[in-house]
Each structure stands twice: as structure tokens, then as C-alpha cells.
Design a protein that fits this description.
Distance between the termini: 43 Å
Helix content: 25-40%
Strand order of the largest sheet: 1-2-3-4-5
Number of strands: 5
Largest sheet: 5 strands, mixed
Mean pLDDT: 95
Length: 223
Amino acid sequence: MKPLAWSYSGLSQFINCPRQFEAVRVLKSVKESQGEAQLWGEWVHKQFENRQRDGAPLPDELADHEWFMERLDAMPGTLFCEQKVALNHKVEPCGFFDPYVWNRGVIDWMRIHNHIATIVDYKTGKVKPDLKQLALFALFVFHTYPQVTKVDTKYYWTVDPKNITEQEFLRGRIPEIWNKFLPDLRQYNEAFKTNTWQPRQSGLCNGWCPVTECEFWKPKRSK
């Protein structure tokens, strides 16, 4: 079986539980429901996009984030909002839905000024500074914009706006950055090759996973 084009979220879901990944993304036998947190996150992203791209005022619920929007406004360079990026198997930029697309992603906010790119990823959940997503965004930029030699990345945590996670990535370290993903990608490719999707038990099995026929699934605990 040919592996599906992967994204950060898709690969993360596979690593968390291959069985869930197969049901949701390969067989599509179950559908993940959108909870309040996910709907809120999508709404916040849209408001920030409208503010940055069109200059629309933030709604009252997000007014406390205007200081950060103004900080982004002041940065020099070409602006990109909700930028879709994709690479093919040769690690070359391609269309998001090209037949040979290998990897996809969406960058919330980016400016490119001369040889430096700055990326911001808006986070509406709990503070979990996993730098691998920022690393993948940096790789997209290096492979898409050859003039960029440095990518400054940030997580902007809306639940704790003053706690901004930052990481710098340099073009000369591209092989080192890719090495962060290779072990997981080997497992990913092997699962498709052998059509083997082992369940991985975790706390998410307690009513949070949509794969209710899994042997590890249990109903949510009553409060």
C-alpha cells in the first residue's frame, strides 16, 4: 500500500496509535468529532488571519491579543497568512494536492525579509512546547525559499500570551533537522508496506478515541 502524504498532525496521530490512524485516515471507517476546544481553536485562527491579512479588528473576546498582532505588524518582509506548503518525494516544493505530494503543512503566519524567515504558530491549547512542529515548518521554508538561511520560529500560546516558545533553525543544519523525523517516518512507511496497525494503549482509550471496536477502548469515566 502506498503511504499517504503525511503532515505533522497525521504523523503524530500515527505515533500515538497506529490503529486509530488506520481507522481515521486510511480506512476512514470512523470520523473524529470536533470538540469545543477544536472549534474554538479554528475560530481563533480565523480571527487572527483576518486581523493580519485584512486588518480586521479582533473581536472583543480576543482583544487581549492585539498587542501581539501589532508586534507582528511592525516586522518587515513579505507577509504570508495560513500559507499552504508541500514537498514531493524529492523534497522539492509542489502543489498542495499534487499527485506526488509527500508532505503537507499550513503555516499560520510568516514573514520573509531578505535571508530570514519568521514563523508564528498560534496555539490555543495547553502549553506543550514540542519543537518538532516548528522544525518541520523550518524545513518547508528552507526547501521552498532557497534564499532563506535562517528561520526564527515561535509558538504563541493564547492561554498564556507572555509565554512565547522560540527556536532558531539554520540552513546548514537541514540534515540534522530531518533526522528528528526519520525514525517515525520509517515506522510510518513500514506500517503501510506490511499493512500492520498495532493499537497503542493510552489514557485516550478511555472514551476519547473514536475507534470504539478496539480492544483497549473504554467508555469515559463518570465524574
